[in-house]
Amino acid sequence: MIALLIFLLFFLFLLLIVGTIVLIVLISKVNRLSERLERLETIPSPPRKPISSPSAPAPRPQAGEREMPPVVGPTPVPPPPKRQTPPLQRETPKKKEHPWLKEGWEWFIGGRLMNRIGALALILGFGFFLKYAFDRNWITESVRVWTGGALGIGLVLLGGRFRRKGMTVFAQGLVGAGLAIDYLAVYASFNFYHLIPQPAALFLMSLVTALAFQQALRHDSIAVSLLGWAGGFLTPFLLSTGEVNEVGLLSYMALLAAGLLLVSLKKEKWVPLPPLTLIGTYFIWLSVREISENTLLLFGFLTLYWGMFLAAEVRFGRNRQVTGRVLRQAAAAVHALMYFGGMFLLFHQDQQLAGWISLGVGLVYWLIQWKLPLEKGFATQMKLTALTFAGVAVPLWFSPFPTVALWGLGALALLWQGRRKSSPHLRIFASILYMVAFLRLLSQGEAWMAPVETHLPLWNLRALAFLLLAGAAAGGALLLRRIRGEAWSIIQGALQTGWVMLLFLWMTVETNDWFRQRLAEQPGSETALNFTHLMGLAGIWSLYALSLVWVGLKKRMYPLLFSGTGILFLSLVVGGIRGLMYQPLDAYLPLLNLRFLVLVLSAAVLLGVSFQLRHHESNAPWAKSIRVILPLLASLVLFELFTVETRDYFQQALERLPSGDTEASRSLFNMQQLAISGVWLLYSITLMAVGIRRRLRSLRILAMGLFGLTILKIFIFDLSFLDTLYRIFSFIGLGLILLAVSYIYQRYKDRFSLTG
């Protein structure tokens, strides 16, 4: 009874499938007949000839009249009436529809989408039915497998029949369902029931995959080809036994990839097939590499895969009308990256060999774009790929600093070649190479700390890398000056700023290492050397900033001007803060010390830059405001210099006094404060005189501010802490100077503007 029920269920299932197919066939025939009737109805009927009525006989001429001959000529036909269109009515452009939707949404959903869903449902339903039957042992294992295989082949044959009848989409669904069932049948025969060994299962899976591609070409269906792709790449996982046959698996992948590439060459419109094949092939190779130690075998198959895909890329690159060019070029770039990654995984311990392989691969790409007639965009990509492989070989051969130098020189050569041949691609590649070289150099922060024992100042690989890369960047900026375009102007400014900062870093690290050597040679002198170190850096930065500002203003290179201004301000901050306290005070010599030299130099640089800006106020409106600020900064630097020099002179004398001599200490303290107040007053009146003579209102205002600061010091500090005699001198001096200033303002008020 149960067997009869099972047979009835199976019969009803087949009847449902056959009935559905028959119903679909009848509906399609009715649709075709209705379409033919509609086309016949729309055909215009031929115009009928009008029936001409018998014309009346011409009147005979009367006696005495001559009979005129009839006029023979074409009968004038009135012109057809012109079709007038409304003046304000415009024709709306037709919307471009997707090729899948050219028959309409209804046909797409009912004819195509439901077909695909129906095929999937058929596959799942058959699978569930077989599992249900298998679990209850209704059918023997052999019969199950043969039934599945026969059903799959039957669906494929049935799909071919419907294709001949013109029902292509429906036929594709049947073929896809049949191929999937055949895959399941072979998989079940091997994995579930162990009816066939692994080689036989692999052979049958390969036959099904080949059948899938044959049917895909026959039906011109990318969906069927993707089904074959999935089945082909899933076969090694479905038939896995835990033991990997490296040669067999990699050979199978080579044959599968070759078949897929041949199919893609025949059907160029199937654009997704080569990228998917590329991903699947390299994924399988990586899986084998995880468990294999045969480096030579892995490298051989990796190079074989690379050659196969490269040949397909060249074939597509020679076709100037190939579809999906952007996707194909992106896949070619990913392919080159994947090959290099796999090669580096194999030979990362022998980087010299990896470098030679990379250079050889780059040479192959270069020869291809040089010798073969490729499409321009694809040839450019091949050239850039060759340059990339050659550039990657450099860090595999050399240490970081020589690598940076070679990259910089290579970028300069490419930029020159791109300018000579008017190739924006080479210029862009050179700009990227510059950026990579900069990042590579900046990432070597720990390598900047050279060994103290073996370091040679200004004569080492680090200095060579800095100088060569800076020179290459400067040369690149000069080459880009004659190329028009906002983007190239930005790159030119970046290169100018880059070489300026490289030289700045080079000066800084070389100075740091020189003082590190002095510290190693003179232990216990950290205080003096640290003070000299920072003040020396401030002085070097000031001179470098002055040269940058001068060149930037003369050549109108504003990146140099702005970079020099920033470095100048940095030197002022470092020198000003470090110069507040002279260390060690025992080594202090009034006016003959490094601090005095550096601060005077900084003030002179500020005044020199301000003087240079005078000639550029007409071309650069911002130069006038900067020219006003720089003398004020120079005045503040000199104010700090005179203050600390006066203070440290007496402070050194105070520290040399015996510890118990309070009277002498008190006297020196009073003299120190009196001298500071006097210096402030003299400096203030000097600024006032210069401001009046040069008609600089900013200096006069600064002088007034210093006068105010001096007044506060005298009335608050000197009045509270100084002795009576020193108070007298402070106040008398203050009064005389203030009266003198007032007299100057009153006496020479016509010689300067009080508001300008």
TrEMBL record:
Residues 44-97 are annotated as: Disordered. Residues 71-84 have a biased composition (Pro residues). The chain crosses the membrane at residues 6-27, 117-134, 146-162, 169-190, 222-241, 247-263, 270-288, 294-314, 326-347, 353-370, 426-443, 463-480, 487-509, 529-553, 560-582, 594-613, 625-644, 674-692, 699-719, 725-745. Keywords: Membrane, Transmembrane, Transmembrane helix. Pfam families: DUF2339 (PF10101). InterPro entries: DUF2339_TM. It comes from the Bacteria. This is Membrane protein. It comes from Kroppenstedtia guangzhouensis. The lineage of its organism: Bacteria, Bacillati, Bacillota, Bacilli, Bacillales.
